[in-house]
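Dig into these lines:

——
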Amino acid sequence: MSQLILLRHGQAGQDPNHYDQLSPLGAIQSQRLADYWLSHEQHFDFVCCGTLVRQRRTLETLTERYAERSRSLPDRVEWPELDEYRFEALLSGLKQVAPQAPTLVALEQMPTDRRRWIPALRTALLAWSEGQLDEVVPEPYAQFRERIDRMSEKLVAAAQNASRLLVVSSGGVISAFVQATLGAPPRAAVDLNLALMNSAVSQLRLDSGGTWRLQSFNAMAHLGAPEDRGLCTLV
């Protein structure tokens, strides 16, 4: 029975227009996760990530930490199916469709205030999932769902030769994948997405019928101590 570990990248950039990077705090989150896994003798037979900088750097940080302890992770494979939707494209599309949306206006007034990112993103994600942005974004929602399905098929194939798989991706991709495994409506993926913490771990298993089954979601055991609260971030 193969186990799949889905890891959301560590905290990314501070500006929505320069988001695709791993922040110093994101690097710490990744190092702490590596330390936690090493202390629990965690190993993987297959490792992959998307092509985005924040995804690659999260995995590279894990790999570097393992190497410091004379341990290793398998060579990574990169799948574009694991890339996140384009945050800025959704906001731009929302601006064209609903320029006076209150959450969008609030974000535009203070774009570096992270407290305003989540409400604006929720508005954009809901509009996207309902097809309202299809004509104004580079990736319509149906196409996004198609690549989530491709990702699932590729993981099933990889699991034929690996008992423990590590996948480093982003909140939207992981949440859409989990929502599909649960058979929940697409709207549920939005709530899952906006609850998923940076460096959070979700685990699934592949049953005998070739179907992924959720075992845990959004686990943060590596940052579970009271003094680590300042290291826990959503964006």
